[in-house]
Specification:
This protein is mostly helical and about 800 residues long. It has 5 domains: about 100 residues, no CATH class; about 210 residues, P-loop containing nucleotide triphosphate hydrolases (Rossmann fold, 3-Layer(aba) Sandwich); about 80 residues; about 130 residues, no CATH class; about 140 residues, no CATH class. The protein has 35 helices and 11 strands. The strands form 3 sheets. Strands 1-6-2-5-4-3 form a 6-stranded mixed beta sheet. Helix 26 packs parallel to helix 28. The N and C termini lie far apart (about 105 Å). About 40% of the residues are buried.
């Protein structure tokens, strides 16, 4: 356009003028001038040069000279216009491609939408239900903490990071249940995956009712979500799952923390009603479902096609657990062909599940090195891929692998981190902390420090890096508000949970996991009055939920209900508040020592202080196990001062003596069965496991020598006073005399048979029943008859394998 106007201006300023302004021109001349003007104005491709050459040939000099400037400018325009149009063609060509791609993409999306719409309408009710159950559990959001804002998702998908968990047997491992089929015991007691148990359901009906126990963060909920997802998507018959010949089932995943109120009504619903009204009603919030067909859930349960999973028995308020356990037990018995799985923390299940327990019980094992490596590598490739818009190229994989290797190397090099990394939640937290820390600093050495760093990360560091303004001036002030809330929840001083039916003292001291929005805002307001009265409680709650994500809102209630992202965060923050309160906090800790729900709070608190006084108080109150756990936790600390070390040495003997006092009393009173049971409990706890779990070869190879010495000394010295010869060292000598070799190898069949005959564990080649016949007088007089670790490790060749290990450990400990 610019060149066009230049040419027009030149034409006006030269002899090429409009004919009307040159009256002496001939008609022919005026025609030529009009033509030249038109060419000059509108020729885009150098047409003026053609006219100029023509006039030169005709020797029309005046006209040719007049046209020369126009021809020159026109030549420039020709070059310009050519490149201009070519470039314009390129640009709009690319735009056309993009527009075409966008058009196709929109058409694909529209087609996909229409296809999904048509497919959804064509699905039957069961298929629609399975899709909703799939969507309800497909994210791995156990920690409740989001990644950086540049990631397109807050949490990875469960299938991207899930690591198969190992289970070990509990009640099925007890020998008296296998008198007729001892060979089955070894199969059940080995470390199993849940799919192997489901595969065996057809042969063993006891596996139709399974209880799975583990402490917080070991992946109980994740395991059930994994089952629900795989069954909802029908992947159990595809890929790597094809090797398991599991039954076809319809999954139902219910969270007891959200539905216990339904089960404790005066007229509670039965299981089909709970699934139809409560569970499906909750899933309709994801996508509306059609009306449930008549007796749909009932028919599935009766046919044995249901996999009903109840997560979190420990999340039921303590006062309601007996009632809930009765409901669960009754409903399980109503449908013996279906499969039921219940998860719980150990103490709640052991102490408060008062009804008939499920017929099979298992524990989730610590992550082993292979599981740890698999999780970290999967987690990092997922995050690195998300950070790059889903790109999964070799360079992305290389970066993920490099970061994963650095984290794993740090864990492997530090024993204190290896202990923590056995817990799935803590390993997840380590990975998040490691990825967020741009300086590559070392991970915290202790559990309490890891929680503190994660809280600081969520309460300020990440928000500051993103330029987000948070209320209150400092991280410590924000944490102090949450500490106050956490302790109030542990003390159970809330007024409402779902309804106003309960008085404030209803949950007194026992604590609870969930809190109504009204109570939560009230406690936040109380804390803010002390810190900064001008801050809005509602604004603080919104940021705690949306930005720090340490508090999360739960669905399925009459009105808004909140809880901490994980119970362990509530316990940690409550312990921080005890620490802040100083003497008042110590007094409250002393008062709550005997409450099972407070055990982890006390342990967190002990890690923040010099715990000598706390240990002594636990001993005074006869909470021996708690005192021992605090002592062992403190003993591993690397940063103890000289004064703390001396104080700890001062209580060491008291803890040791108290731990073995019960065993000593049983032995003195010749309560041999009780002494044998107590020996098992002492030894299983010494390796960091709980009553009902199983020893591994590694546990016995590394068994603490001082523990083994103390236990054996009591057995040998006290039994001798009563005219018996019992003890591990006595059994070790018999084992050697039978041909056993103390090199941690398994005994030969011949050695094992001789040993069992010599100790009267067998009579006429048959196992002596434990405990029915085992403690009869004719057996008790046999040298080395006891101990047998409470009968849990009784019957079969597997105990023979462990005997070879434990006697070798006795030798290396010089017992």
């Amino acid at each position: 356009m610019v060149i066009r106007y230049i040419e027009y201006a030149i034409a006006l300023s030269t002899m090429i003028q409009e004919p009307e302004k040159q009256p002496n021109s001939s008609p022919e001349k005026r025609f030529v001038q009009r033509s030249l003007a038109a060419v000059a104005r509108w020729s885009p491709l150098g047409g003026t040069s053609f006219a100029f050459a023509s006039f030169l040939l005709k020797q029309e000099w005046v006209t040719a000279i007049a046209l020369f400037p126009v021809t020159a400018v026109s030549g420039v325009w020709a070059a310009y216009s050519k490149n201009f149009t070519e470039r314009l063609s390129e640009i709009y060509g690319e735009r056309g491609k993009k527009d075409a791609d966008g058009f196709v993409e929109n058409m694909d999306q529209a087609n996909q939408f229409l296809t999904e719409k048509l497919n959804w309408r064509s699905l039957g009710f069961t298929e629609k239900y399975l899709k909703c159950q799939e969507w309800d559990c497909h994210e791995d959001n156990v920690v409740g903490m989001r990644e950086e804002d540049d990631l397109p998702v807050n949490s990875p998908l469960l299938r991207e990071v899930f690591v198969p968990l190992e289970l070990s047997g509990d009640s099925l491992a007890r020998g008296y249940e296998f008198r007729d089929r001892p060979e089955n015991r070894a199969e059940i007691c080995e470390q199993l995956q849940i799919w192997q148990l489901l595969e065996r359901v057809r042969e063993d009906n006891r596996l139709r009712q399974i209880a799975i126990r583990a402490w917080g963060g070991y992946g109980k909920t994740t395991l059930l979500k994994h089952l629900a997802y795989i069954y909802s998507t029908q992947e159990y018959c595809k890929g790597s799952y094809r090797k398991y010949q599991v039954p076809t089932l319809i999954p139902f995943l219910l969270f007891l923390g959200g539905c216990w109120k339904e089960l404790t009504k005066e007229n509670p619903p039965n299981l089909p009603e709970l699934l139809t009204d409560y569970h499906i009603g909750r899933l309709t919030k994801i996508k509306p479902l059609d009306a449930v067909p008549n007796n749909w859930a009932l028919n599935i349960l009766r046919r044995g096609d249901a996999l009903v999973m109840f997560d979190g028995f420990d999340e039921v308020p303590p006062a309601e657990r007996a009632k809930v356990s009765t409901w669960l037990s009754d409903e399980m018995r109503q449908y013996p062909e279906s499969i039921f799985i219940l998860t719980s923390r150990p103490t709640a299940y052991t102490e408060d599940y008062t009804a008939r327990k499920p017929t099979a019980s298992f524990w989730i094992q610590d992550f082993n090195p292979e599981q740890r490596k698999q999780f970290v590598e999967q987690w990092y490739i997922c995050q690195e891929r998300y950070a790059r818009g889903g790109r999964n190229t070799p360079d992305v994989e290389a970066k993920a692998k490099d970061k994963a290797e650095k984290l794993l190397a740090q864990i492997e090099a530090r024993p204190e981190l290896k202990d923590l990394a056995g817990n799935a939640l803590l390993l997840n937290m380590m990975a998040r902390f490691h990825r967020d820390n741009k300086q590559g600093a070392e991970l915290p050495q202790r559990k309490v420090e890891l929680y503190q760093d994660i809280c600081e990360l969520q309460l300020g560091r990440r928000a500051s890096a993103r330029g987000i303004f948070l209320v209150l001036n400092s991280i410590s002030q924000r944490q102090e508000v949450l500490q106050f809330v956490a302790l109030e929840m542990m003390c159970g001083r809330a007024k409402t949970i779902d309804t106003n039916d309960f008085a404030p003292e209803y949950f007194e001291v026992e604590g609870f996991k969930q809190i109504s929005e009204a109570d939560l805002l009230e406690y936040i307001e109380m804390a803010l009055q002390r810190i900064d009265p001008d801050v809005s409680a509602k604004e603080f709650l919104k940021q705690a939920e949306d930005i720090s994500e340490l508090l999360v809102k739960k669905d399925g209630h009459i009105y808004a209900v909140y809880q901490f992202a994980h119970l362990s965060f509530q316990e940690f923050l409550a312990a921080c508040e005890l620490f802040r309160m100083r003497q008042q906090g110590e007094k409250l800790a002393f008062e709550c020592m005997g409450i099972s729900a407070w055990q982890d709070v006390i342990l967190f608190y002990a890690a923040m202080i010099n715990p000598t006084k706390l240990i002594q108080e636990a001993l005074n109150q006869k909470h021996i196990d708690l005192a021992d756990r605090i002592y062992k936790q403190t003993e591993k600390r690397l940063n103890l001062s000289i004064a703390e070390q001396k104080a700890l040495e001062g209580v060491k003997q008291s803890v040791t003596n108290s731990r073995y006092q019960k065993l000593e009393d049983y032995l003195e009173n010749q309560q041999w069965y009780e002494a044998d049971q107590e020996t098992y409990k002492l030894m299983i706890r010494a390796v960091g496991k709980e009553d009902g779990q199983w020893f591994s070869t590694k546990d016995l190879k590394e068994f603490p020598c001082d523990e083994l010495l103390a236990i054996d000394k009591l057995w040998v010295e006290i039994s001798k006073k009563h005219g018996f010869e019992f003890g591990f060292s006595v059994q070790k000598q018999i084992y050697v005399e039978c041909g056993g070799i103390l090199d941690f190898s398994y005994p030969s069949s011949e050695t094992w048979e001789k040993f069992c005959d010599r100790t009267a564990w067998k009579e006429r080649a048959k196992w002596v029943d434990y405990p029915d016949q085992f403690f009869k007088n004719n057996f008790m007089s046999v040298k080395g008859h006891l101990p047998v670790l409470g009968g849990v490790v009784w019957v079969g060749e597997e105990w023979g394998e462990l005997v070879g290990v434990i006697f070798s450990r006795i030798e290396t400990c010089e017992v």
